[in-house]
Amino acid sequence: MYCAVPTLIWLIGIRKMPESPRWLISRGRGAEVPAILAKIGPQVTLPVVPVTDHQQKVAFSAIFKGGYGKWFFFVVAFWSLQIIPVFGIGTYLPTIMAQLGLTGNLKYLGSAVVNCLYLLGLIPIFIYLDRAGRRPTLIASFLVRSVALVILTLTAKLNLPFAIVLFLFVLFGASNAAGGSHQFVYPNELFPTEVRATAVGAVTSFTRILSAVSTFLTPIVLNRFGLQTMLAICAGVSIVGTVISVMMAPETKDLNLNDAASLNHKITADSVPDQHCDRIVDHV
């Protein structure tokens, strides 16, 4: 019942969502585009987009061709490395709190507070995602949560005070929430319109499977190897995410969708575009 209500609201609200201007153009319905752009905002522009044959079908394998396989791996990697620890820790947080020495109602209170304060991470990301860019904010989110998890791993047997444990878990969760915003940005910017829906769907499927596996394995690791080992694995996963982000994350904040989807061999991961391009609002 509780899940059905927001789903119903979403189904009603989505009926008012306009079609993607690029999708309309690809289907020969370009005359509808100006009205949609006007609704989005007066500063929103759409450069000339080649009109393609709307009967043309794109094969699933297209998401791995033309250099897009690299971006598919990058998105699957950073997305998976974000959600594996958060699903494992978040699902069993009261048990983890108890093993850290928080007995009685403290383990439930701590879990409730931590889950509520995860949303704090959305404040800085709303401010800095477009200002600082996608690349530095993704790296920073992985780095902060890695530090929090490393400290929790090293102090797992020390029975730290409630406030410190709470702070470290909030730091982990908030930084993960901030980094999670990239799951809605990078996939839509790195893949062109003709393969975007297929690529995003495939990425989401892979990450959902991995999140289910991590949720299933967490209690097994806790029982067989202990809390410290489980936290060490989560810390290791976050560190790997930091490394992959440093090595692969591109900067797309000053690129329109045409240029962002053509990054494959034009710029390296640590380069920054020289000129500012009009931002384009588009959706899957």
UniProtKB/TrEMBL annotation:
<keyword id="KW-0812">Transmembrane</keyword>
<protein>
    <recommendedName>
        <fullName>Major facilitator superfamily (MFS) profile domain-containing protein</fullName>
    </recommendedName>
</protein>
<dbReference type="InterPro" id="IPR036259">
    <property type="entry name" value="MFS_trans_sf"/>
</dbReference>
<dbReference type="GO" id="GO:0005351">
    <property type="term" value="F:carbohydrate:proton symporter activity"/>
</dbReference>
<dbReference type="Pfam" id="PF00083">
    <property type="entry name" value="Sugar_tr"/>
</dbReference>
<feature type="transmembrane region" description="Helical">
    <location>
        <begin position="108"/>
        <end position="129"/>
    </location>
</feature>
<keyword id="KW-0813">Transport</keyword>
<dbReference type="InterPro" id="IPR005828">
    <property type="entry name" value="MFS_sugar_transport-like"/>
</dbReference>
<feature type="transmembrane region" description="Helical">
    <location>
        <begin position="228"/>
        <end position="249"/>
    </location>
</feature>
<comment type="similarity">
    <text>Belongs to the major facilitator superfamily. Sugar transporter (TC 2.A.1.1) family.</text>
</comment>
<dbReference type="InterPro" id="IPR050360">
    <property type="entry name" value="MFS_Sugar_Transporters"/>
</dbReference>
<dbReference type="InterPro" id="IPR020846">
    <property type="entry name" value="MFS_dom"/>
</dbReference>
<keyword id="KW-0472">Membrane</keyword>
<dbReference type="GO" id="GO:0005886">
    <property type="term" value="C:plasma membrane"/>
</dbReference>
<dbReference type="InterPro" id="IPR005829">
    <property type="entry name" value="Sugar_transporter_CS"/>
</dbReference>
<feature type="transmembrane region" description="Helical">
    <location>
        <begin position="71"/>
        <end position="93"/>
    </location>
</feature>
<keyword id="KW-1133">Transmembrane helix</keyword>
<feature type="transmembrane region" description="Helical">
    <location>
        <begin position="160"/>
        <end position="178"/>
    </location>
</feature>
<feature type="domain" description="Major facilitator superfamily (MFS) profile">
    <location>
        <begin position="1"/>
        <end position="253"/>
    </location>
</feature>
